[in-house]
Each structure stands twice: as C-alpha cells, then as structure tokens.
Automatic annotation (TrEMBL):
Domain of life: Bacteria
Protein name (database record): GNAT family N-acetyltransferase
Keyword Transferase: yes
Record Pfam families: Acetyltransf_1
Domain spans labelled N-acetyltransferase: 7-159
InterPro entries noted in UniProt: Acyl_CoA_acyltransferase, Bact_Acetyltransf, GNAT_dom
Amino acid sequence: MTTPPSISVEPPHAAGVSRLLEAGSAYSRALYPAGGGCVQLEAAELARPGVSVYVARTDDGTAVGMIALIDDGAHGQGRAEIVRMFVDEPARGTGIAGLLLHRVETDACARGIRELVLQTGTQHLPAQALYAKHGFRRVEPFGRYVGVPASICMAKSLVGFGAEPLVGFGAEPFDDRPLAVGE
C-alpha cells in the first residue's frame, strides 16, 4: 500500500465489512478456542442507532480495516465505546489501526465525547499494546464485560485531545505543565 487508506463511516453491510467482521471473529475464536474470550457484536447490532462503523479502504476500494464507535448513551453522558477493531493480516503494521483510532477519537471529540472505553481480551496482546501506545489505560470491567474472565477493559480521556499547546506572545509555549489534573 503506497498511499494511506481512506477512512469513512459506512453501514455495517457495506462491501467488504462482513468479511472483516468474520475475519475478526475467526481471529478471536483462534485465540479463545474454549469460548469466553472477547464479546463480539454482529452486523445487526452495529446497524442500530448510535453506532458508527468506520472502514479503511485502499485505493482500489478494498476494505482492509474497521472499527466501530457506540455513542448511544449506554455508558453515560460524554462516554462512548470502541468495538470491533480489526485490520486484515497483510495490512497490519502499516499504521491503519492508528489511523482508525485517530479518526474515531477526532469524531468523538467533535460530538462532545470526553472518554472512550473499550474491551479486548487477555490473549489479544498486540491489541493491548496498540491501545496502550495510543493512551488507553486499564480500568475495571464495565457493562456486558463484568464477569468475563478473559476481558481487559481500557479507557482514554479525550479532554484536551487535539489541542494545540498554549503559546504566549512569542513563539514559545508558556510552559509544559498539564492543562488539568491527570493529564
């Protein structure tokens, strides 16, 4: 892939999305053959109001990655959940997952979402590393993941996401102190 993929919000039944959903489910089944791993939402659940499915496509229109954002109020005001992140194996390591995360974070901020939460599995080590690299931290299980032993829940504050450093009258920032406690 020579140019970055395009990322757009698409219906969960768009061309190539069902293939990505099935590949993601197959990947999880391989990691958790006895079941009890990641909780996977199906296409019908992704089609409900408050859910946006983001699809990364190559120049020729091939779907190579996806992520969904659930902003239906179920997690409280100002909080949304990321689900069904998956990138095709040949496209892994090319930055697509990071681009998908950045797009979702940007759109979430524009909607007034202050925190993103997600769930991954204990055996999804690359996913855990990716989310940590992008600022997610482990939190207590929430919602449908409470009592699922193979679940790891994570969250990221979007307060200050995308903000430019404060600059004084010159070209230098005032200082490097955080804008709020916990940043």
